[in-house]
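Reopening closed ticket. The problem is back. First fold of the pair:
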Amino acid sequence: MAERIKYARHRRVRELFLGLESFFQRRLWPARLGVIVVVSAVALLVGIVLFSYGSTLYDDWRQSRLLRRATALLQEGKLNKASQTAQELVARHPDSLPALHVLAEAAEKQNLQEAVKWREQIARLLPADLESQLNLASAALRFGKLDVARQALDRVPSRDRDRAAFHVVAGWLARAEGNLAEQEEQFAAAVKKEPTNDLYQFNLAALQIHSRDAEKSAKAHDTLQRLSKLAPYRTGTLRALLNDAVARNDLIAADNFAQQLQMSPEVTFGDYLLCLNFYRKLDQKKFRSILERVKPVAARDPSNLASLMDWMNQNELAGDVVKWSDKLPAAQLSSTATSVEVADAYATVKNWSRLKRWTRAGTWGESEYLRLAYQAIATRQSRPRSTNPNAEFESLWRSAEQLANEEPERELALARLASKWGLEKESEELWWRVAENPPTRREALEELRRLYRGKNQTAKLYDVLQRLHQSSPNEAPITADLARLGLNTGQNKEQSHQLAKEAYDRAPNEVNCALTYAFSLSRLGRNAEAVRIVESLSPEQLHDPHAAVYVALLLAQAGRIEAANNYIAIADDEKIYPEEEKLLDEAKTNLETAAATPSPMISAVPAELSPAPTASPP
């Protein structure tokens, strides 16, 4: 009985607790659910943040690690591995400036053209940074990309264009374009900005030592003498001083410099060739003795052997090359560079049969196109000229051109060879192709200029001058030539007058620029101003027959009959250009008209404009 009562109590208590639990569950479940949702959301958000932050931290850590490794490899000289590591970083972060700098430096140290690509990317990211643009310009110059270099300099802000470093790079660009006058201006500006910089002093002095200005040349000589005492500049200054002494025929000074250069630790085989230039002038007997001692030294190395043969071919010793090559073992003549020089020697001495045999068999590797070209020349030269093209020559030359096609260095060598042997049609086509390559554009346009001037093709000549002006717009003599030809032929008259003034403003003391502007003024009806410009020039500058034509015309228009006749006499019996002959005829007509027309008394002609009728051009 007692057990039943106890069990009934337990059951009621349990039912009570179950009821209370059910009550609280009904009341608390919505709140608990809300808490769970909130906690879950917060946890998810925190997880996302932590993952993102952790990923960024890892990425930053990885980037720093790769950069440190690439930099260390670069400093250790392990350039390929440094590049690979930096490229891995750039693949993930294309705009990583530190990685791009590593890639650029590694490529430059390996002399790889990729350096230009990396420098371009850096310059794109830092468009207003002077150093980045100058580094790009320098890399572009190093690999012959003149257009890229010019564009980089054009992007330099005006506030930075008077920095010494800018002037130096601009000077080297001018040099690459063939504008030596602007190169000197830029180097002089760099020295003016940083007069204690020995490198800038050396650059300017090495250029000005060849100046016609005695004061500049003397100052450059003193600078080079001072720098020759400094180790970094010793060999370079000795080369410049030796060249200058040989050019001035100062054999005592040249002997001193030659001996110093040969004792220099940095002396090269090219320096020995430079010394040969001097010894050839000093004493033919001593020169021959030295040349015979140099030959066996050169024969030990194929590159030196080819260099010596090339020097001999360029210095009227091709016959000696032929005799020497007969004595050398075949193995020493097997290099392609030596094969080319032997062929050039045979061609120079016009031994066409031996040249044909030399080029008939074998292959010359990368110079195979020259083997075919020399064979073509030998074929044409050894047979009488006929009205019909030589089929064998045409076939061989076309094969040579195909091997050189789209290879700038090969096309240049082939163009030079074609010009040397008077292949006008072939050389013209090649020079136009060579002109597409910025590093060789100036040489190509100058060759085309000579070709068209020689054939008096003024329309084509004008086109070449336009291209020369476009590639070197600040070169005053070229600007003047373009302006004068335009005025003579009636092409782009307004532009020609403007160009004439630009050239004169840039170089008023340069006779070509001064006379072109004076001619322009006379065509605009301002002859009095034109005559004043002519009067400012020294008489020696006006004795050239081409210059005399314009002076005669201006004086004839001014009614200065006697002086005009004197300049007509200077030009009359000389070979002048067809357009100048027309101007000379115009001057004579003006004089005839002036002589037949009574005029007021003309004031005395200045002595400067009254050269003796017997004066002859220099």
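Second fold of the pair, where the issue appears:
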Amino acid sequence: MDLSAFPRVALGSWPTPLEDAPRLAAALGGPPVLIKRDDVNGLGAGGNKLRKLEFLLGQAVEQGADTIITFGALQTNHGRQTAAACAKLGLRCELVLTAKVPMTGEAYERSGNVVLDHMFGANVHVCADAEETVEVYESVNHDRAVTLPVGGSNGLGTLGYVAAAVELVGQLHERGIDNATIVVPQGSGATAAGIALGTELLGWPGTVHAASVSHAKEDAQNELRQLADDAAELLEAETPKLAHVTVTDDTIGPGYGVPTQDMWHVLKLFAQTEGVILDPVYTGKAAVACQRLAPASEVPVVFLHTGGLPGFYGYAPEAVAQF
């Protein structure tokens, strides 16, 4: 599992902390709970996309690109972190965003990630639908440009979380924990796929629970497997079996980016037991899955916090009504 063969730029602060969460564990009534804090990794208000971008932008810079184009929903965490990384590396950033989440209002449309995109100097294009997204993308200057997929999720981006799996398993081993369940949000897929592939390649005996926040279970499973396969091919490794991975879709609620009461409850739980802030789109819904499985777990539970704090403010009016 030699990742040194791939070009890479330094964006995050590694390793990120692995913190005990004893008050949360007591509230859940299960085994020890730990939180892997990929929300506090430095650049651009932090988050899981930085690990992917180290590889994706490393390749882009090696290819001589001066412009990065990528996509997402209006409050995209990936777009915000890409904009920040481009600012650090001196690259032009074009964000082609689609208003696909059924949320409106001043907070959602103009605060949170949206204002940070502009602060980092990105050219932000807001599109009403998929058709307009294609038109705008085609109109952007593509000279010396590299296009990144939604969420930075392809085989190369997945390597960022293969590296994270090595980091996390090492931290657990230092604590004497050689078996655990890792709970991770699954959106565009590369974070969960990288953790799944990395832990398998290490021969780690624990399990991975991927909580889909956007796709139905079967689609999410297929996405995770394809990304893991693509990353394994880059590493010249055997096709992964992924027998230790479970994917669920029962915490999505009405749809991607749409709040649920269970999500608000668990945001309050994490905040009032550990002072940890989750976001309504990714970590909040994955934490509902964590809340459900932890009480019956016979091994420690590790919650992978992928960030998203700026996006929380896009939901501020709804949060005020809850808290």
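Update: turned out to be a display glitch only; the data is intact. The two ends are 46 Å apart (CA to CA). The beta strands are 18-20, 33-37, 67-73, 92-98, 123-127, 145-147, 181-186, 207-212, 245-248, 301-305. Please close again.
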